[in-house]
Amino acid sequence: MSESAEQGAQLVRDLQNIDFVEIALILVGTWLAIMVVRHTLPWLAERGPSQTRLILMGAVPVFRLLALIVAIVWITPLVIRVTLENFLVIAGAASVAIGFAFKDYVSSLIAGVVALFEKPWRPGDWVTVGDHYGEVQSVGMRALTLRTLHDDIITVPLLKLWDSNIVNANDGARTLMCVVDFYLHPDHDTAQMPQALKDVALTSAWLGYDRPVAVFVEQTRVGTHYELRAYPFEMRDQGPFRSDMTLRGKAAIRALGGMEISAPAAAG
């Protein structure tokens, strides 16, 4: 303990040798510079050319980071004796802290290397990662980007590969299956209903005719479950394709005298 205390005393300057006024001026100057840039750049961005708006807005956090780094580098020699031995001590402690802070980033990098060989996704695939479903736009070493059916861009860290089920809807194929569910009261024409729903898919403008259309039926606790499965001509048409089958499927059910009921709540 006494040796550690002695090393700490050698690392930090004596209080009488630390210029607290200069340190305070550096901190205040850094804070003022950040505040000025934080208010000035957005003001200029709103009044300047549209092509420079994103550049100016993106420069605010970059300037803040650089200002903090400059302040830390400036203050450190005022507090710590800069010697080779002290530098090694500080570098070792900083390495541990940085390694702990970036452990998720490193985990994402390792997951990216694993994904290169396992190929759970490729650009153009439609995948579900956690609660997010969309088309893979790009795959980096740390994250992948998804474009959802609502045209949102979602960045997903690759470390999700370790703790999430990855659902790939097409796995490199040029189309994918769309499923529409209907829950009906048991009192209906079970002889004609499957073919009526199948005709709904077969007459859709978005149907891919080279893949099969199927209707699966099962009796559940709440009623008769019809599952209409079909493939759109283009994967990006899955939204309007599902909507078309849903709306016209409901019309076909009413035409045969069927009555829909509420779907059962998902388990869990």
UniProtKB/TrEMBL annotation:
Q: What does the function comment of this entry state?
A: Mechanosensitive channel that participates in the regulation of osmotic pressure changes within the cell, opening in response to stretch forces in the membrane lipid bilayer, without the need for other proteins. Contributes to normal resistance to hypoosmotic shock. Forms an ion channel of 1.0 nanosiemens conductance with a slight preference for anions.
So what family is this one in? Belongs to the MscS (TC 1.A.23) family.
Keyword Iron assigned to the entry: answer is no
The name this protein goes by in its record:
Small-conductance mechanosensitive channel
Q: How does it sit in the membrane?
A: Multi-pass membrane protein
Q: How does it assemble?
A: Homoheptamer.
- What Pfam families does the database record attribute to this sequence? MS_channel_2nd (PF00924)
Spell out the subcellular localization from the entry: Cell inner membrane; Membrane
Q: Which residues cross the membrane?
A: 20-41, 53-75, 87-117
Which residue ranges does the record assign to the Mechanosensitive ion channel MscS domain?
104-170
Q: Which UniProt keywords apply?
A: Cell inner membrane, Cell membrane, Ion channel, Ion transport, Membrane, Transmembrane, Transmembrane helix, Transport
